[in-house]
Structure formats: structure tokens, C-alpha cells
Amino acid sequence: MLPNCDLNDEEGAMRLIEDLTTNAGRVQQEVLNKILASNAETEYLQSFLKGLTDGDRFKSDVPIVDYEEIKPYIERIANGDPSRIISSQPITELLTSSGTSGGRPKMMPSTAEDLDRKTFLYNLLIPVINKYVEGLDQGKGMYLLFIKPETSTPSGLMARPVLTSYYKSKNFLNRPFNRFNIYTSPDETILCSDSKQSMYCQLLCGLVQRRQVLRVGAVFASAFLRAIKFLEDHWREICSNIRSGKLSDWIIDSGCRAALEGGVLGGPDVELAESIEAECGRRGGGGGGSWEGIIRRLWPRTKYVEVIVTGSMAQYIPMLEFYSGGLPLVSTMYASSECYFGINLRPLDDPADVSYTLLPNMAYFEFLAVDHEKDGGDGRCNGVVKEEEEKVVVDLVDVKVGRYYELIVTTFTGLYRYRVGDILMVTGFHNSAPQFRFVHRRNVVLSIDTDKTNEEDLLKAITNAKLILEPFDLILTEYTSYADTSSIPGHYVLFWELETRIGVDQHGRRPEIDKAVMEECCIAVEESLDSVYRRCRSKDRSIGPLEIRVVERGTFDALMDFCVSQGSSVNQYKTPRCIKSETAIGILNSRLLGRFFSRRTPMWQPFKVGGGGL
């Protein structure tokens, strides 16, 4: 099912893309036939199809499912049951998703062949970008790539994030040489489990090779901006290392030290250190340090910044543009822990216009139509399934331009008619294959990095925090939230309107808000959020301390007035639990009584599987 894709045959790769997209309908049918033929005897499919492999029966008899419905099967495999309950191929590892179930990361099955499928998609990215950007074989890419914590399940299978899986695989570590895809970061620095040491060493490598760098990037925009912030804090030390030719003593990872001392850091280079110091220390017009355009200045040959800037990552575009000095922002691919889906065939498009072409050989795709409605003044598609279409799905080639759909996948690894949770809009077709704009995740209201907090989880966390208010005769009457990415790292902001049971004193004044109480509320919310959020806060440091902003009485009435003025029905108005409108945020900020932050990080430890599951 996987056609050969030679890294060094650019024309052949482009012909392959044309063939797959021209014959998308036929390829999809072949994919479904192969999945059913291979897995008809699995326990899961047997329960619905009784060994039949008919595609029509599959669509009529196999239900569309969420994670909670397949979770028992995955937990059984994690605890030692054979892979054949869902897959004819051996499950070789479980990929932890940024989505959660019961506060723990979801786990998706993966196979050895699935690594080859991911490699196939990665190999298509190079010929596509080469169509638009010349000369990428004349230098290197400074890609900042990192691994995350992993754990072993009772069955012995590893459970880890999808990118950690790939970077540790032979597909990545034994990748064939390709002159268009040479990294400044040695593999040892990517595989360093200490994120601070890894970040420092990768940035040091990128700066030592700054004249060879033609493109820079990370997987997500948030991770790349975190690296720039890290560089702001550490450039003097990095320059000291370059000047002396010696690595800082606190870098104790043996792989990092060997890679840098034995190769990249070739010896003292005073001239290079001084040139980097001149750029990092440049003063702005107002006398302060200015890092505007720092990427162009430090890596002057850079042609573009490669990061995902679609979906929730779009909030970082202004800051990326500030640091990059106008370099193109390139989102190359659309993927998740469940499956790698497709690629961007027009990589230099403006971020707002990015569309991904789903490759029909990656999985079997179906689409559930959703209603494009607005609510609460935040201007976001809710992804509400239309009642009359609730049980109707369409195939890949039958979607309609301009319509919104939720993605459903059937994979080679044991997921059948699984709701990924992504809401997509069809923007057009490349041959017979549709192209989609990623709109948002279903039910997610807050996201800074890889965290995805939905309305239900936010409500539970706030409900726990409210208990702290009760001994002080305080009542939370309304709340909303937004993801503040005006600084790095970004953080969650909650707006709370409070009422007191004891009313006002003889002078008409209300009791002052106790700072210590509100700070405890902040950490109580954080402790109640899921493990992905707490990992980002405590280990990755990719999310800043949660903030509660207490507002005056009547503030949420003013918010309602604004939303109604924007077209919301006063009779059907519900306070939006997340806001994105700058005007709405301004209304809330104009009525602040106090701002409070978490003073410690929430507890987090790698999740364990067993003894009752996730």
C-alpha cells in the first residue's frame, strides 16, 4: 500500500502525489479493503461484521466512536492482552495524545509499519518545498526537536508521544543522507531527555553554524518562540562557550557533550562570538534591547520559518512575525497521534490561507458535517453536528467546498471509524483530493502548547477552586477565560466576578480581596487540570503560571451587552467560557479589581498504566 518514495527523486515524488490525488477515490477504496481484509478476524470487528469484509456493511454496522468507547480495548493491550483484539499486526507501542481521558493522556495503537507510513509522508515534504524555495541543498536546517517523557506499560509496550517515538526510531536515526535535509542539531542533542540541556545545545549548534542555516523551525510555533525566549536569557553564556571553545559545566548529558566537544564546537572562535553578541545586544531606538528581526540577523541566509501556525497555534503569528523580520511562516503537514493525514502543497501561502491535502493512502477518511454557528462573541465555529445529519457521513471525495466537517478515521493500526475531534473546512480540491483548513479541536476552549482544555475540564477545575472561597464568605458568580500569548510562555487567564455573603460595611465598602486566598485558588485550578497541562507547566515549562483576574460587580453584564450588540440573542445568551474578541477582553480588563498568579507549579509525574488502567 505504501509506494516507494526515493528521497533523491524529486520528480518521482511529485508524480506520486499527482497519482494519489488524481485517483483519490480508488485509493481510498483500496485502503478500506486492505484494512478490512487484514483485520476481519480481530475481536473488535468480529463483534460487528462476523468476519465479513464488505465496505458497505462496515459503514452501516460499525459505529462511529469516541475514545471512551475504544479505551477498554487499548487498556487491555497495555495490560498484556494480544494485539489481535484490534489489529492483525503486532502493536509495537502506544502513542500518548495531547488529548486526555479521565485526566490522563489518551493512548493510540501503533505498529512498525506505521513508522514507515510516517516516513513516507515526511519524505514528500522536501520535494514540495523545493518547488517554491531554491537552493535548500546549499546549507542546513536549524530544527529544534525534542523528546518527551515516556513510560512502560504492564505488557512491556512503551507509551510515549508520537514525535518521541519517531525521533527514537530507526526510521529517523538511520535515515539516508539527503543534501536537502541536513540538520544543525546532532541526534544526541535531540535525544537528550533534559529539555534545558537539549535546548541550550541545539541553539549553540545552530549559532556555531549560523552562516550555513537556510531554514529554521520547530514542530509547533509555541516551541519555537520558547526557544527564542530561552536564547534571550542565555545568549551571553552561549557566546562565552563559542569564544572559549568550551561547553558550560552544567551540561552533563554525555551524548550532548560528546557531540559538541567532539565535533560542532571545534575550538575558540572569538570573531563568531562577537558577531552574535553584536546582534543580540543591539539597542533599539528607545535605548532598550530590540530583538525585532532577530532571526534574520542571527541566521542571515534563512529563507523561511517552518512551524505549525494553524489552529490554536495561529495566536503566535504576530510574535513570530516580530522575531522573524517578515520571513515566510511555513506549515508543512497535518498529523496527530492517531494518524498522519496530509501535507500542504502550497507551503508559502499566508498562514491564514493554509490548507492541507489529505493523502488518500494514509488511512480511510470519512467526514461528519457540522454546523458553522457562532456563539458568545468569540467568532469561532462550534462544530455542532446538525440533527438531520447526525448519522450521515461522506467519503473523502464527496465533501463540499465551503462546508465544515469533523474528521473520522479508520487506520491500519486498529482504530475504526474513530472521531479524531478536528473540525475542518473544505477550501478546494487538488485533483480529486480535497484540501482542508484546520479550524479547531472539538470542545477545546483553551490551548497554549500541546495542552487542550475543554469546557467540562475547566468547569471541574474551577468548581474545585471555589471550595477555597467558601470559608471567606465569597461566591463566584461568573467566569470566563482566554489564552494569553502576549508573552512567552503563554498562560491561562481566568476572569472571575465575586460576590460576598456579608455585603458591604457601614461605609459601603466591600471586603478587600485576600491575595493569599486567590493565589491558592490559582494553584487549585492548575492542580485540577489534566496531566498534559501539568506536564507543560511543571516539566516542559511551556506554559506560564495561571492567572485569575477579579473584576467588578456588573462586569459580566457589560460583557453580555457587548455580545448582544454583536448579534447574540438576549434570550439565548450564555456567558462564553472562553473569549477571543479583543474588544471583549478589553471590557473585562477595564474593570479589574486585582490580578493573582500561581506561586508554585502543580504536581506532575509520568502517568503509569496498570492496576485499573490509565
UniProtKB/TrEMBL annotation:
InterPro entries: GH3, GH3_C, GH3_M. GO terms for cellular component: cytoplasm. Residues 356-441 form the GH3 middle domain. The keyword Ligase applies. It holds the Pfam family GH3. Keywords: Ligase. GO terms for molecular function: acid-amino acid ligase activity. Belongs to the IAA-amido conjugating enzyme family. This is Indole-3-acetic acid-amido synthetase GH3.17. It comes from Acorus calamus. The gene is GH3.17.
